[in-house]
Amino acid sequence: MINPKNPPRDTLIPGIIFVVIYAAWAMLVSSGSQFIHSFDNAVIGIVCNNNPANVAFAKTFTNLGNTSTITIETIILFIILITFKQYAYAWFTAGVMICANCYNWIIKHAVERHRPTVHHLVYADGYSFPSGHSVGSAALFGVLIILTILLIKSKFWKTLLIIIWALFPILIGYTRIFVHVHYPSDVFGGWIEGITFVLLGYSFLYHFYIEPKMLEKSQK
Sign of the CA dihedral 163, 166, 172, 173? Predict the structure, then answer.
């Protein structure tokens, strides 16, 4: 079912804008820009501290963004959508997550940015830019925001869920900086990348499923 009152409109233009922003950000990072260096130092100075409670929270919460965790959550969401016969939304979810994570792997190996050299509070391997945790969480919870807008009719629950979904990638990104395994610019780039794939994925969903369904309904 599609929320008949106010489904989001086509997001192709915002998606293209995010592509441009992401491309510019990736170029700044890969070129070792002084702006990126200053940005990273400024954010690290604000975020990082040695408070035991913050350290414990960050080391635990960051696991929610692990590739294995995000994959399991995606599979569960896919199965739920298939069970309720929301086939278009299920494939929208799978498509966004597959494309975002595959592209992230390509960019990591194209940029080859090494992780911060300070002591890591959790284990992390591979290249640093962009943050895979940030990409995966922004993509998954971005998808959940879209699905919430489309499927939840109650304004209260819709608003509450959107706030909850938005907080997850923000907190996961924060923990990646806090545990010293990513630069802030890695996290910001990951958020941009994840959101980009959600916007482009929804544009595809809108043109090939939502718009035809709305047109079909209007002609009845």
Answer: negative
Provide the residue-wise pLDDT of the chain in tens; the chain has 220 residues.
Answer: 555 466 788 999 999 999 999 999 999 999 999 999 999 999 999 988 888 899 999 999 999 999 999 999 999 999 999 999 999 999 999 999 999 999 999 999 999 999 999 888 899 888 999 999 999 999 999 999 999 999 998 899 999 999 999 999 999 999 999 999 999 999 999 999 999 999 999 999 999 999 888 887 777 6
Cα dihedral 94, 14, 187, 98 in deg (nearest 10): 20
Nearest to 121 by CA among 176, 52, 187, 180: 180
What is the value of pTM for the model shown?
0.92
